[in-house]
Backbone:
């Protein structure tokens, strides 16, 4: 897929506040500081489309980006950010859950995992919830340029083994880097293949 247009279409905290035009939605979520904004900017080819920050937990809203006039890329708030107050954390959880539970247009959720670390318990818990709720998802490893290929492969295999303790099989998994654009074509082509099947 070639991205010829990517524009901000609106922010919301509840599904009913989303852009009025209904199109297929592909959403992105991960723990705070996983590199989600950088990945979105890399996929769309628009620097600064999603606001990057050195402060984790910056995304507090559900942000819709209209891609090629045909689908939405949805940037969800991160989960598992410990430095928020209980009230703020609850508000974020409510925003995320409202979207996941009530967006009829959600086609697929990409769950982002930092390739430099073992998969965290809150990642496992979140993914388990997706299974319970029947939400289709894929996994994207970020920051894959930070590890050598052998170390990266071992890390991904370790994480896969951990996930397979809960799952009979894993969904599609992608390795990406916003620095060298690796994985961009694979993710976009996967989205395109799903759009063609709708």
Residues:
């Amino acid at each position: 897929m070639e991205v010829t247009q990517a524009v901000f279409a609106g922010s919301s905290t509840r599904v009913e506040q989303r852009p009025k035009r209904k199109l297929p939605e592909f959403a992105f979520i991960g723990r705070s500081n996983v590199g989600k904004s950088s990945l979105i900017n890399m996929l769309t080819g628009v620097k600064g489309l999603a606001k990057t920050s050195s402060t984790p937990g910056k995304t507090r809203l559900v942000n819709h980006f209209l891609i090629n006039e045909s689908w939405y890329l949805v940037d969800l708030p991160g989960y598992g950010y410990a430095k928020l107050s209980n009230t703020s954390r609850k508000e974020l959880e409510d925003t995320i859950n409202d979207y996941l539970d009530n967006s009829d247009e959600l086609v697929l959720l990409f769950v982002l995992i930092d390739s430099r670390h073992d998969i965290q318990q809150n990642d496992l818990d979140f993914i388990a919830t997706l299974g319970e709720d029947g939400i289709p998802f894929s996994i994207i490893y970020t920051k894959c340029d930070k590890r050598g290929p052998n170390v990266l492969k071992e890390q991904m295999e370790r994480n896969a083994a951990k996930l397979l303790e809960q799952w009979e099989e894993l969904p599609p998994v992608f390795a990406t880097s916003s620095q060298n654009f690796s994985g961009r074509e694979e993710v976009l082509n996967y989205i395109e293949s799903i759009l063609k099947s709708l």
The beta strands are 6-12, 25-30, 62-67, 71-75, 106-114, 137-142, 173-175. The two ends are 16 Å apart (CA to CA).
